[in-house]
Amino acid sequence: MLYRIAADTVLVLHLAFILFVLFGGLLVAWKRGFLALHLPAVAWGVFVELSGRFCPLTGVENALRGLAGEAGYEAGFIEHHLLPLIYPAWLSIPVQYALAAVVVVVNVSIYGALLWRRRRRSDAGR
């Protein structure tokens, strides 16, 4: 039971990390301190997608599921609603490249908007 809870926790953390990679620039807009965390996370997310590697969180989750005696995913809430987001059946190398591009475009857009807003503020103060 504890291994299954741990595996589900890793799954939720994995989803949170993916969301942070994609939208963490919005946290940077709120608090600049997130920049030091977000840029490496984006680099890692793009690297994983372009290299075709699995995130280490996947291995941890699978190991915990094995220790819990699970051969596959059961139809619980976590598995039913979150697994398809993280591990879609249609995931392929071209799709991973597209996902990496989405991560880059979203983050360049967010950071571009932040820089534009910052520059506009500094120009207004002159």
UniProtKB/TrEMBL annotation:
Record flagged with keyword Membrane: yes
InterPro entries: DUF2784
Alphabetized UniProt keyword annotations: Membrane, Transmembrane, Transmembrane helix
Transmembrane segments: 12-30, 97-116
Lineage: superkingdom: Bacteria
Name of the featured protein: DUF2784 domain-containing protein
Organism field: Stutzerimonas marianensis
